[in-house]
Amino acid sequence: MFVDSHCHLNYKGLVEDQAAVLDRARAAGVGMMLNISTREREWDDIIATAEREDDVWATVGIHPHEADTHPDIDTSKLVARAAHPKVIGIGETGLDYYYDHSDRAQQQKSFRAHIAASRETGLPLIVHTRDAEADTAAILRDEMGKGAYPGVIHCFTASGEFADIALELGLYISISGIVTFRNAKDLQATAARLPADRLLIETDSPFLAPVPHRGKPCEPGYVADTARFLAGLRGESVEALAEQTTRNFHALFSKATA
Description:
single chain; alpha/beta; 8-stranded parallel sheet; 10 helices; 8 strands; 17% strand; globular
């Protein structure tokens, strides 16, 4: 069984045919899917999808792109919505300096509010970081000094040095279909050496479809293709990688297991 630890089932490209998308994922061996929120207006629909589908879970969070438009989302609001039984994570949150769609100071403030919610609830933090390694690492480390919290660097594309910092802080690292791309040599080298007990897999669908599905909307079922490629990189069977990453998901997102 595979787990897609990060997908956007309510985004355009999947939501129009969501039932069929879910059926195809199950047929590909995907046993659980974590449906990630990025804006407050999505929360109700994302939670409703999780309520309707036994194998789908939800998060609550504000993407760094949306930080400017959500100045009122604070730790207390995140904690309150995270009390829902099918909400098992906080995020996605973090820093994105590539697009700079939101003011960097506001991104950082939002990021810290999410970390505080993760610490208070015990639910894992789902971290997005792009072109912001130094500030992301500094905030993660500073906040860890205030009290431990669980988390994962999703759709990992950062440097090997950043991977080592994340691991040192006790975080997990999730690999998406980007690892299958021909020009992803540095990422492949990092993915090959990650500790087995800190590894997750994801699609980030409908984005970033892996080889051999490039150019199509990504779907949760394609996590099996990423798993096969990653298993080859790491010199292990896809069955072993599926078992290990599923075990890791349950260890990190323990509310789903409970």
